[in-house]
Write a structure and sequence with these properties.
The protein is α/β, with parallel strands linked by helices and 176 residues long. The protein is built from five helices and six strands. Strand 2, helix 2 and strand 3 form a beta-alpha-beta unit. The chain is globular, with a radius of gyration of 25 Å.
Length: 176
């Protein structure tokens, strides 16, 4: 009987001590964390495979700082992996009509938004235009990582997801 009392007391002590280690993880009446999200669209009648060149102007931040987080380079790398040739502003301005018809002009915008819990997340917008300045692709990504750089990379991945999924390979027989 004495052994039973000792075991019971030890178990009771462990249960009571364990209570201090449990945290209330209920999310009732709490805001959920920012869920990564991607939305994208291509213009009706467009075929992304009609393009194999891209011009991406560098992001410029307040104070004249150019693309301090490497967002432009990240988008450029993703497009090069698909077979795109990145061209300079000078090349974009001096291209032939045939080259212009194969070129997308990529504009990148992003902003940080509050998550309601004292943190921030990134909203990334990537739009690609043809030489007639019509939107061909529009992608938007939301992401919250552990750093500004992580936020931007994650949001870029989500904003580019629809393009990467839809693009197969450059096809010169496709009319843009």
């Amino acid at each position: 009987m004495e052994a039973f009392k000792v075991v019971s007391m030890v178990l009771l002590t462990m249960v009571l001590a364990g209570c201090t280690f449990f945290k209330n993880t209920s999310t009732e009446n709490e805001e959920l964390p920012v869920v990564p999200k991607a939305t994208s669209a291509i213009m009706d009648g467009s075929n992304l495979n009609a393009y194999n060149r891209v011009f991406i102007p560098p992001l410029q931040y307040d104070g004249g700082v150019l693309d301090q987080y490497g967002v432009t380079a990240d988008v450029e790398r993703k497009l090069k992996e698909l077979g795109f040739q990145s061209i300079s502003e000078e090349d974009a301005e001096g291209q032939s009509p045939e080259e212009a018809a194969r070129t997308l002009y990529c504009l990148i915008e992003h902003q940080h938004a509050e998550d309601g819990k004292g943190g921030l997340y990134v909203i990334m917008q990537i739009n690609m235009y043809d030489h007639y300045q019509q939107i061909i692709y529009s992608g938007r990504g939301h992401y919250q990582g552990l750093s500004t750089l992580g936020d931007l990379r994650g949001a870029t991945d989500y904003a580019m997801e629809g393009f990467i999924i839809r693009y197969e390979v450059y096809d010169p027989t496709v009319n843009s």
